[in-house]
Amino acid sequence: MYGKTLPHHISDSNRRIIETSGPSRRVYQVWKGSNKFFLGGRLIFGPDARSLVLTISLIVVPVILFAIFVSQKLVNEFQHHYGALIIAIALIFAAYDIILLFLTSSRDPGIVPRNAHPPEPTDNGNISPGLCAEWQGSHGGSASLPPTKDVLVNGIIIKVKYCNTCMLYRPPRCSHCSICNNCVERFDHHCPWVGQCIGRRNYHLFFMFVSSTTILCLYVFAFCWVNLKKIMEAYECSLWAAVLKSPVSGILIIYTFIATWFVGGLTAFHVYLICTNQTTYENFRYRYDGKMNPYNHGCIHNVKEVLFSSVPKSMNNFRAKVKEDSAGFTSSHSLGRVVSPDMPKTSFDLESGGKRHTVAAEELEDIQSQFEIGASERCDTQPPHSSWPADKGNWEITHDIEALAAEFGMEHGYGDRGNTRGIP
Prior knowledge:
With 424 residues, this protein is mainly alpha-helical. The chain has helices at 10-20, 51-75, 82-105, 129-139, 203-235, 239-245, 247-276, 280-285, 299-307, 332-335, 361-378, 399-411, 417-420; strands spanning 25-26, 36-38, 43-45, 148-153, 156-163, 168-169, 175-177, 182-184, 189-191, 196-198, 321-322.
């Protein structure tokens, strides 16, 4: 009676879905965050990566002015080529600073991969029913999926939050960056000057960049004063007269003085954070001064952990190939769990590089049977062997079910099913 039968094994169904899907793409091409990728996904930047142009210019322009207008006068003032060494140190330090800036901005800061589906409901633990009910009403979720979980860290209980965007419980010290739209491990902050989140995998580079920028500012500041001092001695004039003879030195002194207060203060603040094993986010939000910090193991151990521990590998392979999922029709009813409204109909399993969602043969049979009933009623023909009751005679199949049933019908050879069943 039927031309072909639906597959009875899930593996066969999954195999056919993969074979009939569209051409594969790479992870960075379907990335749901706000990041910008370059060189085929090898470099990842934040959405405000254009700020790098301003940051680089604030470093390079003063150094060029220093090398042309200030250091040239110092070359003749020092013997044994010390003047040339002054220029070389400034240029090398500036290049080192730019490299650190680029490495900080172009590296995965520690992005936690998103889940394709919410986690399985677990025991609520100490979550009150009122809190779960409030979460259910505000997020359209289930009371079995609490907004927070208790996690034991070094003998201290802390709460981890559920991220409705990434559909996962954030690991300890992880937070969701609203600018990059990603959950980041050991999230410190999003730096607009770097144009990237600062997290577990690039924090040490960020600290090196800030501290080296402070040293560069102090270096230029000091030798501009030396230049003015040499002019005052050579011409036996006042400081104001020396500034008039070398106005670039005066401008750079003012510029580097202001910059040192900014980057120098930032460096000092992060030295304090490193010694106490805090992040900027934790310091401003939780204030560990009045309570126990579960991550503080002493100054020496903290410095070793933050600055000298090995950098973990990225949890994302941005160049991995993925395929569009034609089984995106799975609803919250078929999953039996909460599905985020942010999930697109065409979904991707980013962690496994395109592994397809399991499609049960029973779901295909159910869709096919609904399509048969709708098609038969439209032709005013009573469907043979129908298992639906008589009061279902006015059943109207939805456009989504019809389209999906047609898709799977064509895939499995049901395109001419009406003719094989004798439907005119």
